[in-house]
Design a protein that fits this description.
single chain; 188 residues; mainly alpha; 5 helices
Length: 188
């Protein structure tokens, strides 16, 4: 059934349910990663493979996030259209999710030290990035409903603040995880 024939309230209800499932998936993914990380001691060769995947996942996820937030910044400054921002979002969001999934999967085999406060902060940063990513699906749905020539300056104040908050939260989470990962690696 085409989406135009489904009432808006029904589409929004379905989207809320999907978001709720996605929030749970992020929480369960993090929990499973931590459980495996605390109970499995992989052989050295697997540890190195997981480290390679982990670093690739950081590059993929952070690169996608930086690209999207940079496109958002250009839209805020009037140098990109909302349609160009939407195209970027559709292109890079799957890459960001692959990065997060890769981090959770490979991180489970890196034997994270949950007694180290920095590692706990890093795990929380990754969790925040994942939860923020789910929350951003609602924001992108709101932006998709805007006319193609919508400028950032003409958005309602609440949506402007939501855009800025989501971008800041995303960058803070990704960069916190990267910096702590570097500190943890340098300490070993």
């Amino acid at each position: 059934m085409p989406s135009v024939t489904i009432p808006l309230f029904e589409r929004r209800r379905t989207a809320r349910h999907r978001r709720a499932l996605a929030y749970w998936a992020v929480l369960l993914g993090m929990s499973a990663s931590l459980l495996v990380g605390a109970s499995v001691a992989p052989p050295q060769w697997l540890h190195y493979c997981a480290l390679f995947v982990h670093l690739g996942s950081v590059i993929l996820g952070l690169g996608a996030a930086v690209t999207l937030e940079f496109q958002g910044l250009l839209w805020m400054k009037g140098r990109r259209s909302i349609e160009e921002l939407r195209q970027s979002e559709r292109a890079v969001s799957p890459l960001a999710w692959l990065g997060i999934i890769g981090l959770l999967t490979s991180g489970a085999l890196l034997e994270p030290s949950l007694h180290d406060p920095l590692t706990v902060i890093k795990m929380l940063a990754v969790l925040v990035v994942g939860l923020n990513g789910v929350g951003m699906t609602r924001l992108t749905a709101e932006l998709r409903r805007m006319p193609p020539r919508t400028r950032f300056t003409s958005l309602p104040r609440a949506i402007k603040l939501w855009c800025i908050w989501s971008a800041v939260l995303s960058q803070a989470g990704w960069w916190t995880a990267v910096l702590i990962g570097m500190l943890n690696t340098a300490g070993h």
